[in-house]
Write a structure and sequence with these properties.
heterodimer; A: mainly alpha; B: 146 residues; mainly alpha
Chain lengths: 145, 146
């Protein structure tokens, strides 16, 4: 229990360092990536590419172990089917992402950097998550991020 | 028109750090480092494992603060939108990530690494609607804030 909490804090810190080093805490860099018809900024593609290069290699090796180091089992999403909610949810998320240049990680990371926009966005994002629960109350939801 | 300052090395190094963090969380705790899922579940009244979720989420600004101090980054990040637009965008991102079971990290970084078909469809979808949104805001409405 203590060890998984340590792992959570440590990996959260490292994730936050990565978001800052790669400048993903700058909304204009994100909007610049999505602006394919303007002065395109490829930064986000390299960030995702760098992250995926590691996870695509490491995940299969880690999952081959059968169980994680400090927990009884892997907690992985099990759904395989494509449904309307997946596509509709991703579509709505993309619209918000394009409007603000924030997705959840890059919104939370700069909260201590004096970014007032990140606070406004994060408060609204939490409200949006609670609104989703209100609308789909009582339904089984797969938790994932 | 803003000038694009493109720093490929910092982008790749930062991305690799994100990939390492996601891999270590999976290795140590067996968890997917999906920010919207970690936050969304932590907000549930009856969340049985809230503590590690909150610790991970608190780690994000701590890491950003440390990196910012070490790298000597100056001013706070500039906003890309006005406050009312940020509110609308936040609502859409919060609602959308819960409905679509993930965001850039969970679907884009972790899900694609697991070769999940759902994550591939979700990632292509939010990239497309994000790009269309920016096109409409910047080029059709012409209200570019930068």
């Amino acid at each position: 229990m203590m060890r998984t909490r340590f792992a959570a804090l440590g990996t959260g810190v490292l994730f936050g360092v990565g978001l800052t080093v790669s400048e993903m805490v700058q909304p204009l860099k994100v909007v610049g990536f999505l602006d394919v018809a303007g002065a395109w900024d490829p930064t986000l593609a390299l960030v995702m590419g760098g992250a995926l290069a590691v996870t695509a290699l490491a995940f299969p090796l880690i999952l081959r172990r059968g169980r994680p180091l400090w927990a009884d089992a892997f907690s992985l999403p099990t759904r395989q089917d494509l449904d309307a909610r997946l596509v509709a949810g991703a579509a709505l998320f993309g619209i918000g992402w394009g409007l603000a240049g924030y997705c959840p990680g890059p919104a939370l990371a700069p909260l201590a950097l004096g970014a007032s926009g990140a606070w406004i966005f994060t408060a609204a994002m939490v409200a949006g998550m609670l609104l989703h629960r209100l609308v789909f109350e009582g339904r089984a939801e797969s938790a994932r991020g | 028109m803003e000038v694009v300052v493109f720093t490929p090395l910092a982008a790749i190094v930062g991305g690799v750090l994100i990939g390492i963090a996601s891999s270590l969380l999976l290795l140590a705790s067996g968890r997917i480092a999906g920010i919207s899922g970690i936050l969304g579940s932590a907000l549930r009244p009856l969340c049985p494992d809230r503590v590690w979720r909150l610790l991970f989420l608190i780690g994000l600004p701590l890491g950003a603060l440390a990196a910012s101090a070490i790298l000597g980054r100056g001013p706070a990040p500039r906003m890309a939108a006005s406050a009312p637009v940020l509110v609308l965008a936040g609502l859409l991102v919060g609602f959308g990530t819960q409905l679509g079971s993930g965001c850039t990290s969970g679907h884009g970084v972790c899900g694609l690494a697991r070769r999940s078909k759902r994550s591939l469809v979700a990632t292509l979808t939010f990239m497309l609607t994000g790009a269309v949104t920016v096109f409409v805001v910047r080029h059709l409405l012409g209200s570019a804030s930068s």
